[in-house]
TrEMBL record:
Protein's UniProt name: Growth hormone-inducible transmembrane protein
GO annotations of cellular component type: mitochondrial inner membrane
Membrane-protein topology: Multi-pass membrane protein
The family this protein is said to belong to: Belongs to the BI1 family.
Subcellular location: Membrane
Position of the signal peptide: none
One Pfam family matching this protein: Bax1-I
Source domain of life: Eukaryota
UniProt KW keywords: Membrane, Transmembrane, Transmembrane helix
Principal subcellular localization: membrane
Membrane spanning residue stretches: 32-53, 65-84, 90-107, 119-137, 143-165
Length: 209
């Protein structure tokens, strides 16, 4: 429910923001204020959502979740300028990749992908540095083209592996969770928001292709 709800709310927020000229002008201005503001909003709402204890029903946790995925929708609203066909194609590709990888993670032997944590952390550092470097070196140069390729294709592979890792981690956490031992119920919001974040990143990488 939370994964599908995240997709729906993100799409609705993106459409709503795309129809507001004032907000769209702010989002596409590429100023330090807009870039810093969107990054701070995404990180801040994500931390807020994850920090609130989960309780069944609709409460503060669920409202913070809606706020977080709504901000993510606002951030990607400028992509609507690329046109519907391109976005729909990327969405179908993402759905196929996420569905296939999730099936692999569910059917794989227990903890098969849970040993990749260190490798994924190192890969994330490489992709992050490449993304920063591609901002300073134009893609027309050999170094800039290499950094851009690492950022795009490396990010695509990395987020796919993260999806395998976290899907299996969520399954294990749900299977071994004990309300009586931990003193709190299993938190599906944090689990599915994390998986949605990687699916969201995969979609952005595929649009960049």
């Amino acid at each position: 429910m939370y994964f599908g709800g995240s997709i729906a709310v993100t799409a609705l927020a993106a459409v709503a923001v795309s129809r507001s000229p004032a907000i769209m002008n702010f989002m596409i201005s590429n100023s330090l204020l807009s870039i810093g503001g969107t990054i701070a909003a995404m990180i801040g709402t994500g931390v807020l959502c994850r920090s609130i204890p989960y309780s069944p029903g609709f409460g503060t946790k669920q409202m913070s979740w809606l706020l977080h995925v709504g901000v993510m929708g606002a951030v990607v609203a400028p992509l609507t300028l690329l046109g519907g066909p391109l976005l729909m194609r990327a969405a179908w590709y993402t759905a196929g990749v996420v569905g296939g990888l999730s099936a692999v993670a569910v059917c794989a032997p227990s903890e098969k992908f849970l040993n990749m944590g260190g490798l994924l952390g190192a890969g994330l550092g490489v992709v992050f540095v490449a993304s920063l470097g591609s901002s300073f070196f134009p893609p027309t140069t050999a170094l800039g083209a290499s950094l851009y390729s690492i950022s795009i294709y490396g990010g695509l592979v990395l987020f796919s592996l993260f999806l395998l890792y976290d899907t299996q981690r969520v399954i294990k956490a749900a299977e071994h969770h004990s309300d009586s031992y931990s003193g709190r119920p299993f938190d599906p919001v944090n689990a599915y928001v994390l998986i949605f974040s990687y699916s969201f990143s995969l979609n952005l990488e595929e649009i960049s292709l």
